[in-house]
Amino acid sequence: MNRKLIGLAATVAASLLITGCSDSTDQQSTAQPSKKTQIYLVDGNTTQYGDEFKAGTFDGVKGVIPGGKSTDEFRKRLLAADPGLKDFAYAVEAYDSVILTALAAEAAKSDSSKSVAAKMRDVSNAPGDKCASFEDCSKLLKAGSEIDYDGLSGPIDLNKTGSPSAASVGIFQYGADNTYQPVGNETGEASADPVPLPAQEISGAAAPGDGQLVFGSLLPQTGDLSYLGPPMSAGVKVAVAELNDQGGVLGEDVKLVGGDSGDGTPNIAPQEVDKLLDADVDVIVGTASSSVSLSVLDKIVNAGILNISPSVTSPAFDTFPDKGLFFRMMQSDALQGGVLANTMSNDGYTDVAILVRQDAYGQGLAGSIKTSFTESGGNVVATRFYAADSGGFTAEVNAIKAADPDAIALVGFDETKKIVPELIKAGLWMGQ
Amino acid sequence: MRFRPALCLVLLVVAFFGAGSVAVAATSPAVTAGVDGPGVVKVTGKLVNRDDTGSAPVAGGTVTVTDASGAKHSATSLADGSFSVEVPFKVGTISIELDETSLPDGVALREGGRNPITRAVSSTLPLTVTFVLGKGDRQTLSWVDQVPQSLFNGLYFGLIISLGALGLSLIFGTTGLTNFAHGEMVTFGALVTYALNVMGADIWLAGLLAAGLAAAFGFAQDRFFWRPIRRRGTSVLAMMIISIGVQFILRNTYQFFTGGRTETYRQYTTPEGHRLGPITFSIRDLVCMAIALVLVVGVTVALRRTRLGRATRAVANNAALAATAGINVDRVIAAVWSVGALLAGTCGLLLGFSQAVKFDLGALQLLVMFAAITVGGLGSVWGAVIGSLLVGTLIEMSTLVIPSELKVAAALFLLIGVLLVRPRGLLGRAERIG
C-alpha cells in the first residue's frame, strides 16, 4: 500500500516535471494565438495599480469613471485629515454630500431632515447664483438669494429622484506604469426629469429641529469593501471641519457621528443605523455600495432621516420608494454603462463579454452595459457573474475564454487584481 | 424520515443562495418626452472587418443617420474605420443605416448583423452604433472542450487546498478540536510572505520564512493557548466555540493591518500561460503543485514511517492509552500543531499566488476544507487529500453546468450526497490517521 502510493506520487510528480520541461523547450509551437482581447474596467476597479504589478501588465486597459476627480489641493487636505490614505476614490463626492446638505439646511433655516430634503434641489440646481464653496454659498443665502452649488465633483444638478441629472463620465487608459491617464470624456445632460413615483415624494410634516445639524457617517470600515471607506471618511471629515471653521450651520457647530456600514456579510449596517438614529442624526452620509444601501434605506427613510450617498450607482435607486429623502452624488449606472458601451463600440469591438461581480452594483451596471451595447447593434457573447467571496476565478475566466470575445468588460471592485492575472494566464490579455 | 435533516439543509442552501442572487430590478426612471433642448447629439462608431485573417478597419463606408424629424445626415468612415455624424438634438428615435454598396470588395455585414440600427435619443450624451462586419474570427469552445481545463484547474485548486485540509484533519484527529481558526493560519502564511516580499525578500526566501513562522505560530498557539485550555478539561464543543472567537480576533487583526485591500506578491503574479493540448497552465502553477504534492506525500509517509508519526497515530486512536504506553502526549500534540500550521501556512502562501493576499483569504476556503475532510472521512489523512481533490475538481467542473456564482454550493451538495450514503465519509472507516 505504502509503496504503491509513493510510486504513484513519484509518477505524478515526474510527469508534471516532464510536462513543465517539455513545454518550455517547444514553447514556440504551442504559443498562444496573437489575437488580443481588450479589457475595459469600470469605476469600481479603475484605480492606480502602480507597482503592485509588473510594468506593462495593465498597459492599454481602458476604464470609465463617472463624476469628479480630486484636485491636488484637495488631496492635500484629505491627507492632512488622514495621512494613511492610499487612494482618493469618491472623496470629493463625500465632501460634496456634506457641503450640499449643509447648504440645504441653511436654505431651509432648519436642521430637520424633511425640511432639508425639500431644499436639496433648490440649492443644487439653477436658477440661482452659481457658487462653489460653503463660504460663498452661505453668504449668498444669508443675503436672501437663490443659489446653484457647483461642487468639487461637478455641477451637481439633482433630478426629481435625487440623482445628478448632468452626466460626465471620464474615459481613461492605463500606461506601462499601470496607472491611468484621461483619454476622453463624455458629457451630456438628460433632457427631461424623471417623474417621481408617489412614494418618492416627501410625506408628512417635518419634525421641529433642535438647531444643531448632526451628520452620521455610514461608510465601510470593516469587511470586503473597507478599502473604500478611508477616502470617503476623510472627505466627510474635511467638509465637517470646513463647516465648523465657517461658524457652523444655522449658527451652531455641526456634529459628526461615525458608523460602520460593513460589507453586507454579515450585514452589520442595520445595527449601525440604529446606533446613528439613537444619536439623533439628521443626515446619514453613506453607504458606499448599492447592495448595503438597499438593505438599510427603508429603515432610514421610515425614520424620516435624510440619506445621501457619495458613491452608490445602482439604477434601483431611481425608483426606490424613498419618501423623497434619498440623494446621491453619482449618476445612475444607466449612464456609466452607456458610456462604457459607447467606448467599446467606438473602439470597433462587436462581440464582447461581461464579467460581473454578483451584487446590486454589478448587476445594475452590467445590465446597463449589456442593454446599451446590444441597442447599438453589437453582440454580448457571454455574461458571467462571480461571487466575490469565492476566492479564485479560474472557472469564470475559462467560461469567458470559451466564448472568445473581442473585448471584456470587467465589472467589479478590488478582486480585479485576482482576475487580471487569470486573464493573462488564459491568454486573453497580454498587455501591449 | 432519515433524510429529513439533509433535505432541510438542501432547502436552506437553495434558499440562501437563491436570495443572494435575486436581481435588483434595473428599471430606468420614466422620462417625460417632448422636451427639446439646444445642442447636438453625436453619433459615432467604428467599422472593423473581422474574418480568419484577423481584424482590419474599413475606410470609405457611408453611414446615414435619419434624425427624429426625418432629416438625413451622412458621413464616411476614415482610414481607422471611425465615423462621426452630428444631428440636432430632439427627443425621439433616430435610424442609422450603413450603405452596404459603399463597402470595399470582400467586406459585408455578418449574417444576422443589424442594419439599419435605431436608437432612442433622450439626452445629449453621444450615441454609438456597432455594425458587425465580416465572418468573425472567434474560436469558441464547446462545453466538452472546456472539460480538460476545468479538470486541471480543479486538481490544482484541490491539491493546494489539501495542504490546509490535511492540517485541519491532523489537529482534529489528535485533539478532537474542530478548529474554525484554521483558515486564519492559512491567511497567516500568505500575509507573512507578502510582507517579506514587499520588504525586498525574494519570494522563495519569503515563502520559506513564512512557512517556518507559521509552524512557530502553530506551536505557540498550542503551547500558550490550547494546552492550558485542554488542561482545564474544557469540552471539545466549548473549544470549538473558542476557536470561532479566535477566528474573529485573528481575522480582524489581519484586516486592521492590511486595511481590507487585496494585495499581490511582487514576483510571479502574472505568469505567462503555456499550452499543452487543450490545457493552459503556467510554470508557476506546476511549481506550486509540485510543492504541495511533496508536502502531502512527505507528511503521509512520515506518519507511517517515523517514531513521531506512529506516536501521533497512537494518540489519535486513544490518547490515554498512548500516555500509559509512555508517549508524551503533549509533545505529540505540539508537533501536530506545528506541522498542521506549517501545512496551512504553505497552503496560504501558495493560494496567495492565484487568489492574491487578503485578510479573509483563508477564511473563504475554510468551508471548502471542512467539506473536503468530511467527504474524505474525518481524521483520515488520505481522506483529507482525496476529499480536497474531489471538492476542488467539483467546484471548478460544476461551473460548466451551473452559474459560476453557485460553484461553492456544488461542493456542499457533494458533502450532503456523500454523508447521506456514507456518513463516515469516503475513507472514514477504513483508515484512521495514516
Task: Describe this entry's structure for a reader.
The complex is a heterodimer of chains A (432) and B (434). Chain A contains twelve helices and 14 strands. The radius of gyration of chain A is 24 Å and the shape is globular. In chain A, helix 5 links the parallel strand 3 and strand 4. Chain A is of the alpha/beta class and 432 residues long. A seven-stranded mixed beta sheet of chain A has the order 6-5-2-1-14-12-13, with helices on both faces. A five-stranded parallel beta sheet of chain A has the order 8-7-9-10-11, sandwiched between helices. With 434 residues, chain B is of the alpha+beta class. Chain B is built from twelve helices and eleven strands. In chain B, the strands form four sheets. A four-stranded antiparallel beta sheet of chain B has the order 5-4-7-8, with no helix packed on it. A three-stranded mixed beta sheet of chain B has the order 6-1-9, with no helix packed on it. A two-stranded antiparallel ribbon of chain B has the order 2-3. In chain B, strand 4 and strand 5 form a beta hairpin. The N terminus and C terminus of chain B are likely disordered. The interface between A and B is large, with 111 and 112 residues.
In short, what is this structure?
Chain A has twelve helices and 14 strands.
What sequence of helices (H) and strands (E) makes up the elements of chain B? HEEEEEEEEEHHHHEEHHHHHHH
Instruction: Please report the distance between the alpha carbons of the first and last residues of chain B.
Output: 35 Å
Mean pLDDT of chain B: 86
Query: In what order do the strands lie side by side in the largest sheet of chain B?
Result: 5-4-7-8
Beta-strand proportion of chain B:
5-15%
Give the arrangement of secondary structure elements.
The complex is a heterodimer of chains A (432) and B (434).
Chain A: H1 2-25, E1 38-41, E2 62-66, H2 72-81, H3 91-108, H4 113-124, E3 129-131, H5 134-142, E4 147-149, E5 166-174, E6 180-189, E7 214-219, H6 229-245, E8 255-260, H7 269-278, E9 283-286, H8 290-302, E10 306-309, E11 326-328, H9 333-346, E12 351-357, H10 360-375, E13 379-386, H11 394-403, E14 407-411, H12 416-425
Parallel strand pairs in A: 1-2, 1-14, 3-4, 7-8, 7-9, 9-10, 10-11, 12-13, 12-14
Antiparallel strand pairs in A: 2-5, 5-6
Helix pairs in contact in A: 2-6, 3-4, 3-5, 3-6, 7-8, 9-10
Chain B: H1 4-20, E1 40-46, E2 48-51, E3 54-57, E4 62-66, E5 72-76, E6 82-88, E7 92-99, E8 117-121, E9 127-128, H2 147-175, H3 182-198, H4 203-231, H5 236-258, E10 274-276, E11 279-281, H6 283-305, H7 307-317, H8 319-324, H9 329-355, H10 361-376, H11 381-398, H12 407-421
Parallel strand pairs in B: 1-9
Antiparallel strand pairs in B: 1-6, 2-3, 4-5, 4-7, 7-8, 10-11
Helix pairs in contact in B: 1-12, 2-6, 2-9, 2-10, 2-11, 3-4, 3-5, 3-9, 3-10, 4-9, 6-7, 7-9, 10-11, 10-12, 11-12
